[in-house]
Amino acid sequence: MNFKTGDKVVVIAGKDKGKEGKISHVLRAENKVVVEGVNVAKKHVKGNGQTAGSIVEVEAPIHASNVMIVDPKTGKRTRIGHSTDKKGNKIRITKKSNESLN
């Protein structure tokens, strides 16, 4: 999986198609990502002695194939490629503008 925490992505499929957000968590074993403000679900939390029960909104994971990285130069969605820098380290680049992703 080519996504990292903090990457800006856009949703390309599903009920939240077109929404943008940052990746807050990556679930590599399940090939899923959690994006801020996307795929929001309501969770019922049972109260205990100190707090009352409530309904909380949480972001649920979305499959990695349903999101694409946003090109920092153009602001449009793009695919991710790999290249090496001058020191020989492997880096991620965007396919549209060859911009490096940090």
If you had to describe this structure to a student in words, what would you say it looks like?
It is elongated and about 60 Å long. With 102 residues, it is mainly β. The strands form three sheets. Strands 6-3-2-1-7-8 form a six-stranded antiparallel sheet, with no helix packed on it. A three-stranded antiparallel sheet has the order 9-10-11, with no helix packed on it. It has a domain of 66 residues: Roll (SH3 type barrels). It has no helices and eleven strands. The mean pLDDT is 96.
List the helices and strands and how they pair.
Layout: E1 8-11, E2 20-27, E3 32-35, E4 40-45, E5 54-59, E6 62-63, E7 67-70, E8 77-78, E9 80-84, E10 90-94, E11 100-101
Q: In the CATH scheme, what's the topology name of one domain?
A: SH3 type barrels
Q: If you compute it from the alpha carbons, what radius of gyration comes out, rounded to the nearest whole angstrom? A: 17 Å
* Biggest β-sheet strands, sense, barrel: 6 strands, antiparallel
Spans of at least 5 consecutive residues with low confidence: none
Helix content: under 10%
Tally of contiguous helical segments: 0
Percent strand: over 45%
The side-by-side strand order for the widest beta sheet comes to 6-3-2-1-7-8
Shape, per Cα inertia axes: elongated
Mean pLDDT: 96
The top-level CATH class of one domain is: Mainly Beta
CATH architecture of one domain: Roll
Separation of the first and last Cα atoms: 15 Å
